[in-house]
Amino acid sequence: MKKILLVLAVLGGMGLLQWALTAFLLDGPVRQGPYYYQILMLAGINVILAVSLNLTNGITGQFSIGHAGFFAIGAYVAASVSVYAGPTLQGSLAGLPSFAADSVLLLVASAAGVAAAAAAGWLVGMPSLRLRGDYLAIVTLGFGEIIRVLILNIDAVGGARGFTGIPRYSNFFWVGLGVVAAISTVRHIVRSSHGRALLSIREDEIAAQAMGVAVTRHKVTAFVIGAAFAGLAGSLFGHFTMYLHTNSFTFVKSFEIIIMIALGGLGSLAGAALGAVVLTVLPELFRGFAEYRMVIYALALILIMIYRPQGLLGKGRFLGRGKDK
Which is deepest, 28, 63, 66, 113, by most CB within 10 Å? Predict the structure, then answer.
């Protein structure tokens, strides 16, 4: 029953966001439809990114700033499967209705993107998560830039021109399902024995290790799960925009995701979702001041650190319950 209520709450929240965008952001019938629908989709994708990064940065207490790299891997791998293997798969699915065939192709492409992002997370996490603090941040930042530069030099995915010809398989249902999957997974992890181990690592890594917690193994597991969901977000993003370019996956994107979870509250599941929605909608409200967007973000972070260091919902609130810490 609780799972059903959670699904209804998430979908209802996204529906409320759609209504708010329609009521307050749109001023003409010409802009209605594609404009607010795109904002709604991007908000859902950002929720997946924020919740997945919060598992590493907020719940485990690490500091990764390379999440955009996993986002890019998921997007480009899934798009490559759709573009290059899609025609062959469509031939084998010719007897299915078009929507069913598209759903199967999206699932296959997303599975490839998730697997590739998870594998990359394991390869990066095994050596780097033995480090702490600034050293881990530098390693993950370097990883994100390495992925971006590699993509720029691969002609098969468009290189510097960008990757075009991606079919639009992603829609509100799949993004909403991805949001539910991300929130449900992280929620169950936090409430499990593995989650308690992650929280103990966040509070005092040395004490956790002294009590017999396999610190590196738990950190790598959380890192891989976060990377996998970033890959899922990348797949949904690529199959919605139908075009990918490395400008969407720079270190600035990683910082934006960090700002989302800092705004909502590090370690707060509901806060990560709230921060993602707020920082997706705010740029549209201030579209006339787009050149000052990062300045506004920086000022918001400074004000939050001064007046609300625990974030809007506090790091102790996972689904809107509990006390601020």
Answer: 113
Domain count, the chain: 1
Residue 312 lies inside a defined structural domain of this protein: no
Whether residue 269 lies inside any domain: the answer is yes
**For residue range 206-255, what is the model confidence (pLDDT) as tens digits?**
888 888 888 888 889 999 999 999 999 999 999 999 999 999 999 889 98
**The token pair that represents 212 in the structure block:** 């017999």
**283 is a domain residue:** yes
- Residue 252 sits in a domain whose CATH number is 1.10.3470
pLDDT in tens, 12-37: 454 445 444 444 444 443 344 688 88
Q: Residue 215 and residue 201: Cα distance in Å, rounded? A: 7
